[in-house]
């Protein structure tokens, strides 16, 4: 009987892997850098070595499988990253099959925000529900939808790309090729872009915009205005999601959550103004912070082998 699974979170600059028991305990963790200047082969070698090292330490017999979370649009059935601005070298490369063959074990490829949403459902803020939405607010905005305890994937695996909901007509151009996406208006990057436009600083971070908002002067007022606008944009996105899903729980994660008190009032006001479903279900619809932070993706990736059926490789 398998006792653990390995979750790997692959980012643009690093990868992290964790050994997680069936009961959700992190038994081991390892991290490495992703340096594409060394080429795709070197990055694949690094990942495979990290997993092999963990498997060796914890025993091959107890391994249920490996889940890998990646940023970008994936083809689930094929185990391929179709498009990823952060990992262009891995686009259209059979990453899942390659790892599966090299390690001779069951591997599932998943979008990183989908994995994070599943992690929150398994061990985080969503353990008491079967249906939830997660928005990860970072340099971009990721989205994951859990329905009936499972990741909602759509036909190819690209469902839940909530950061690219076209929220603002003729809005800012986005790396995905569209305009006015949620992530161009409500991410940490959007906050710093607004701060630049308001002359608060050319290289100002979202944390600094948060700090500025505490100041009782003109710059502080501008910073508070930025958080208000960011919150209202999020509120609109949430209104669409609440109307679409009528789920009991919508989670937000990411560093900008430190500014919750600054953006949440505008977010909740806008949500209420724009969603009849929310107005009718206010007492049971929760909007709140996620719990697992950076670990959510690792939990979710590791949980995938336990709940997904796919013919294991021989
Ligand atoms: Zn976009």
Account of the 3D structure:
It is a single chain. The radius of gyration is 20 Å and the shape is globular. With 314 residues, it is α/β, with parallel strands linked by helices. The chain starts with a strand and ends in a 7-residue tail after the last helix. The structure holds zinc ion. Zinc ion binds next to loops.
Helix-strand string: EEEHEEEHEHEEEHHHHEHHEH
What fraction, in percent, of the residue positions are helical?
A: 25-40%
Poorly predicted regions? none
Tell me the strand percentage band: 15-25%
In DSSP terms (H or I, runs of 4 or more residues), the helix count works out at 10
The shape is: globular
Q: Which structural class do the helices and strands define?
A: alpha/beta
Number of strands: 12
Bound small molecules, by name, code or SMILES, are: zinc ion
Please state the CA-atom Rg, rounded to the nearest Å: 20 Å
Oligomer: single chain
**Reading side by side through the largest sheet, how are the strands ordered?**
3-2-1-4-7
Mean pLDDT: 94
N- to C-terminal distance: 18 Å
| Largest beta-sheet characterization | 5 strands, mixed
Short description:
This protein is of the alpha/beta class and 314 residues long. It has helices spanning 40-58, 95-103, 112-123, 182-186, 188-197, 206-212, 218-245, 260-274, 276-281, 296-307; strands at residues 4-10, 14-21, 26-33, 63-70, 73-75, 80-83, 107-111, 132-137, 141-147, 150-151, 249-253, 286-289.
């Amino acid at each position: 009987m398998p006792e653990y699974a390995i979750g790997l979170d692959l980012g643009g600059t690093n990868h992290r892997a964790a050994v997680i028991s069936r009961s959700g305990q992190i038994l081991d963790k390892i991290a490495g850098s992703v340096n594409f200047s060394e080429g795709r082969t070197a990055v694949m070698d690094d990942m495979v070595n990290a997993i092999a090292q963990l498997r060796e330490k914890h025993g091959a017999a107890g391994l249920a499988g490996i889940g890998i979370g990646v940023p970008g649009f994936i083809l689930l059935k094929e185990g391929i990253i179709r498009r990823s601005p952060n990992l262009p070298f891995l686009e259209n490369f059979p990453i899942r099959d390659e790892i599966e063959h090299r390690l001779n074990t069951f591997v599932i490829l998943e979008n990183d925000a989908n994995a994070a949403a599943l992690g929150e459902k398994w061990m985080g803020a969503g353990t008491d529900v079967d249906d939830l939405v997660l928005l990860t607010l970072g340099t971009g905005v990721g989205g994951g939808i859990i329905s009936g305890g499972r990741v909602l994937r759509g036909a190819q695996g690209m469902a839940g790309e909530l950061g690219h909901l076209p929220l603002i007509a003729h809005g800012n151009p986005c790396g995905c090729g569209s305009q006015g996406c949620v992530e161009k208006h409500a991410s940490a990057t959007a906050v710093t872009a607004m701060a630049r436009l308001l002359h608060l600083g050319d290289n100002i971070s979202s944390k600094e915009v948060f700090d500025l908002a505490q100041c009782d002067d003109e710059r502080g007022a501008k910073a508070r205005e930025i958080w208000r606008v960011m919150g209202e944009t999020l509120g609109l996105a949430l209104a669409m999601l609440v109307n679409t899903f009528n789920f009991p729980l919508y989670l937000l994660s990411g560093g900008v959550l430190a500014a919750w008190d600054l953006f949440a009032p505008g977010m909740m006001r806008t949500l209420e103004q724009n969603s009849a479903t929310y107005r009718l279900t206010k007492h049971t619809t929760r909007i709140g912070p996620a719990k697992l932070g950076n670990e959510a993706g690792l939990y979710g990736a590791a949980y995938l082998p336990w709940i997904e059926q796919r013919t294991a490789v021989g």
